[in-house]
Amino acid sequence: MGEVCVKVALRVRPLLPNELIQNHKVCVRIVPDTAQVMVGSDKLFSFDHAFGPTATQDEVYNSCVQPLVETLLQGDNATVFCFGQTGSGKTYTFGGGNLGEEGGIIDRVAKNVFSLLGEKKNSDGVETKVRVTYLELYMEQLHDLLEPHNTDKELFISKNDKGNTVVVGAKHFFVTSAEELLSVVEAGNILRHIKTTGMNEHSSRSHTILTLQVEQGFPNNNPSLKPSCSSKLCLVDLAGSEFARKGNKASRHNESAHINRGLLALGNVIRVLATRAHNNCKSTHIPYRDSKITRLLQDSLGGTAHTLMVACVSPSHHSIAETVGVLQCAAKARHIRNCPTATSTH
What is the pLDDT of residue 204? Predict the structure, then answer.
């Protein structure tokens, strides 16, 4: 397969009840029947998908995430990552906990993956294994959310023999159903660093990386079919940027500083990759090593995965500076080119 560009979906949340009470004004609007967003009266941004405050979880998933799940089962790597200011709706979009209407991307991916794998087994006799890892990057340190009693374990970011980014030492579980997968995620979520800040009562103070590795094979008596392959889907929930002036207590400033440095490094990688694509220059240095989150996303940005960025923003005029920053970064990401390749295990 040739080059494909990173896809970007924009999601604008509704004004929150406390924002309505405080008379916040809406300054971000989706242009009807387009994938464009208007900020104020003079800033226009274009994306691959744009969802307004009334968009449902189903609409977001079916429009831009479900195609990546199908890609995963065809043998290609894929990534979905949420990006935006804290309190912009990332956690709601990613969701968790049930398969109902309010379930987010993780819930729907779990159900979708095992439904499609069941169909493939029934139609083609495909045998599959799904293993999951769940990591947290907090204060620039990697933690394994699947090993609650082993806090001293060291994890290392490396490359495997196929050139894919891996985390050496991460524990994995094999799961056989959506319910098992969501149970693993729920157990991991208990260990996440989530605290109250000046902008969000339940603010994620870390990045999380949930990875599904899907291994597909065929019985030996069916040699005419394709060889077995292995592909991965990374679901990355990035912590939100948060300005100190927004009311953080001093105890949160160090966390915010680490988060913002990592997001700044991510923004720099996106900018350099977009510029390289625009200038058609392959020799440009990409500063992946400036932070661990950019190293973890190396396969997804300028690498071998089909990638979707879900950019979440607040519509409030109080957040306009942060919103414009997110939109500018997201607009650049659309120019990044990846080269997905199917991976055979033989």
Answer: 62
pLDDT of residue 145: 94
Summarised one tens digit per residue, pLDDT across range 154-212 is 899 999 888 889 999 999 999 999 999 999 999 999 888 765 444 444 456 789 999 99
pLDDT at 48 over 60: yes
Q: Side-chain half-sphere of 310: how many Cα atoms within 13 Å?
A: 28
Within 8 A by CB and 6+ apart from 39, the residues are 27, 28, 45, 320, 323, 324, 327
Using alpha carbons only, give the angle 13, 21, 59 rounded to the nearest 5 degrees.
Answer: 15
Q: Can you give the pLDDT at residue 241?
A: 79
Q: Which residue has the higher pLDDT, 26 or 255?
A: 26
- Report the C-alpha gap between 112 and 246 in whole angstroms: 39
C-alpha distances out from residue 196 to 164, 204, 255, 291, 299, Å: 36, 9, 12, 25, 32
Q: What's the pLDDT score for residue 200?
A: 45
How many other CB atoms are there within 10 angstroms of residue 118's CB atom? 13
Q: What is the pLDDT of residue 198?
A: 47
Who's near 274: CB < 8 A, 6+ residues apart?
A: 332, 333, 334, 335, 336
Task: List, in sequence order, every beta strand (DSSP E) within the chain.
Answer: 4-5, 7-12, 28-30, 36-39, 43-46, 49-51, 77-84, 127-138, 141-144, 156-159, 165-168, 173-175, 194-195, 203-204, 207-217, 229-237, 305-313, 337-338
| Inter-CA distances, 208 with 2, 55, 56, 213, Å | 30, 25, 24, 16
Phi and psi for 228 in degrees, rounded to 5? -65, 155
pLDDT of residue 54 exceeding 70, the answer is: yes
- Determine how β-strand 28-30 pairs with β-strand 229-237: unpaired
Helix (H, G, I), strand (E, B) or coil at 144: strand
CA distance 342 to 74: 8
